[in-house]
Automatic annotation (TrEMBL):
It comes from Gemmobacter fulvus. Its EC number is 7.6.2.11. The complex is composed of two ATP-binding proteins (PotA), two transmembrane proteins (PotB and PotC) and a solute-binding protein (PotD). Residues 2-232 form the ABC transporter domain. Part of the ABC transporter complex PotABCD involved in spermidine/putrescine import. Responsible for energy coupling to the transport system. GO terms for molecular function: ABC-type polyamine transporter activity; ATP binding; ATP hydrolysis activity. Belongs to the ABC transporter superfamily. Spermidine/putrescine importer (TC 3.A.1.11.1) family. One of its GO terms (cellular component) is ATP-binding cassette (ABC) transporter complex. It catalyses: ATP + H2O + polyamine-[polyamine-binding protein]Side 1 = ADP + phosphate + polyamineSide 2 + [polyamine-binding protein]Side 1. This is Spermidine/putrescine import ATP-binding protein PotA. GO terms for biological process: putrescine transport. Keywords: ATP-binding, Cell membrane, Membrane, Nucleotide-binding, Translocase, Transport.
Length: 358
């Protein structure tokens, strides 16, 4: 559906996009995720045609968009600042892009009603736009884009101005809406949780390049570099060395864990200057309480910090033989005993949950 072929973009001397290659499939919910300034908005704008490119090509439906102006592209954009007209009604805002299409009054009302229903604002047509809440305004902006039936909807941080509860609600509604209308959604966000929740696939960008493009689970479980691992969720790292490699099996030794065998799919490049390391997510380490046994491997550790979150408790534990504490998280199941700072404990872990960066 959309293809980037070695796309470069310069702003004067500044190299904002540095060789982007990617394909976005029709009907996909695709996110561009990365820290501020990594070029995700610039990349989104090259699809819309608001931004020219310096070299390479952007194709939509196999057609090179080089000479196609923004208003002739099958795309529509929803912005972070809900760019609606405060002096118009909700219905006038939603129907704005159709006003020159010569539709009958009835047809216009029908299309507006349909779009408002899609975004959960049925019956709001006559209201004044300036009297809406932030979440409602963003819905109006969405309805205004959807009514034009674009093949691709481009969303530039559409939820970032909303409070946490409203944002989470809108995330679920956007997913539902995308399934319902079946068009391609491309979302720009710097919020990794939002990207994980909403996307079929995510391109993680740093400094004008795509560092990894994968589905949420792969990004979370098998980040291809320490930088991606650090950007998405929390990952603990311990120094490790490779002892031998034979076929698909890689023998390693990691501080605190000892020797083990990993499959080559668990071994990535992308180590930092600190050297090779194994990484693991906080929920893959488990404290073993009295009488519990590890299903796989176990190590001894000392509790350094306990942080209670209601549904979860985070423990910072120092595994024997390591220098700094690792964070582990446990769901608070009814009746779980609480450990104190300084307590000695056994922790269970599994080599299958580790990723090695070399
Ligand atoms: N019109 C412009 N002229 C010059 N430099 C620009 C222009 N637009 C963007 N840049 C620069 O290009 C880089 C990428 O900008 P872009 O807006 O794509 O980043 P982003 O990843 O979307 O960040 P944010 O989340 O902060 O919006 C930034 O360093 C920015 O300062």
């Amino acid at each position: 559906m959309i293809e980037f072929r070695d796309v470069h973009k310069y702003y004067g001397d500044y190299h904002a996009l540095r060789g982007i290659n990617a394909t976005i499939k029709a009907g996909e919910f695709f996110s561009l995720l990365g820290p501020s300034g990594c070029g995700k908005t610039t990349l989104l704008r090259t699809i819309a045609g608001f931004e020219g490119i310096s070299s390479g090509a952007v194709l939509i439906d196999s057609k090179d968009m080089q000479s196609v102006p923004a208003n002739k592209r099958p795309t529509n954009m929803v912005f972070q600042s809900y760019a609606i007209f405060p002096h118009l009604t909700v219905a006038e805002n939603v129907g704005f892009g159709l006003r020159r299409d010569g539709l009958s009054k009835d047809e216009m009302a029908r299309r507006v009603g349909e779009a408002l229903e899609m975004v959960g604002l049925k019956g709001y047509g006559a209201r004044a736009a300036h009297a809406l809440s932030g979440g409602q305004r963003q819905r109006v902006a969405l309805a205004r884009a959807l009514i034009l039936k674009p093949k691709v909807l481009l969303l530039d941080e559409p939820l970032s101005a909303l409070d946490k509860k409203m944002r989470e609600q809108m995330q679920v509604e956007l997913i539902r809406l995308q399934r319902q209308v079946g068009i391609t959604f491309i979302l720009v966000t710097h919020d990794q949780e939002e990207a994980l929740v909403m996307s079929d696939r995510i391109a993680v960008m740093f400094e004008g390049q795509i560092a990894q493009l994968a589905d949420p689970e792969t990004l979370y479980r098998r980040p291809n570099s320490r930088k991606v691992a650090d950007f998405i969720g929390t990952m603990n790292f311990l120094p490790a060395t490779i002892l031998s490699e034979q076929g698909d099996q890689v023998e390693i030794e990691a501080q605190g864990f000892g020797r083990m065998s990993l499959s080559s799919a668990q071994v990535m490049g992308g180590a930092t200057s600190e050297g090779a390391a194994v990484g693991f997510r906080p929920e893959t380490l488990t404290i073993l309480f009295d009488g519990q046994t590890a299903t796989d491997r176990e190590s001894m550790a000392t509790i350094e910090e306990v942080v209670y979150y209601g549904d979860m408790t985070y423990y910072d534990v120092k595994l024997d033989g390591t220098e700094k504490a690792m964070r582990l998280s446990m769901r608070n199941v009814f009746g779980r005993p609480v450990l104190d700072i300084g307590a000695r404990t056994r922790v269970a872990w599994s080599p299958g949950a580790l990723v090695m960066f070399r």
